Amino acid sequence: MKFIGITQRLLENTSYYEVREALSVEWGDFFKEHLQGFLPLPLSYAMPFSTYAQSLGGSLGGVILSGGNDLNSLNPNPLSSMRDEYEAQILTHCLQYNVPLLGICRGAQRIAEYFGAKLELLEGHIGNHQVVDTSSGEKFEVNSFHNYGIKDLPNSLEALVMAQDHSIEAFKHKQKPIFAMMWHIEREGGMQAQEGQNQSFDEWLKIVTIRKEKE
Questions:
Q1: Which domain holds residue 31?
Q2: Domain CATH number, residue 164
Q3: What tens digit of pLDDT does each residue of 9-58 get?
Q4: Both ends of the chain: CA-CA distance in Å?
Q5: Is 184 a catalytic site residue?
Q6: Marked catalytic residue, from 87, 94, 105, 169
């Protein structure tokens, strides 16, 4: 069986101090419907990512950087800093070993920032909104749950989908199997069969599947 590693949201319990790792049950439903043949592997921040990579070897089919939490550069706090540092380990490993990586919302922001992209506070990105595929010009609607967005990309990354305010909603790395989108594919309306909407996920999944078949 192949695994897809997935990072979790970090939460601080308010009734007594305890830091918790959390992953929406929607991801389980998403794997059952769209990632059959792969098991989700929630990654613990207490375990170096290198431990997972070395232990699983070829059984690690890919990694997802999920949503939740702000980047530490946008909202400095210990939990965001912990998550940023851990996801930097993942990015470095995926770049070195060509492991397929998919960023969702906060995960997309983390990938963009890792490569030097600029992020800004946005308005009108809480709730569904219209975006456009940069290659076909097709418009479609996506869900949206973020306050910060990506305004430009370095040369190593290519924009795939743009919002009406010209912020970047989906992108990919030009040489590496790294893809990202700002909407939540695991939530309602995240995987509608509209032109261009699933391009990032489809390309990432194709690479993941080819790797699985070669093992």
A1: 2-214
A2: 3.40.50.880
A3: 999 988 888 999 999 999 999 999 999 999 999 999 999 999 999 999 98
A4: 11
A5: yes
A6: 105
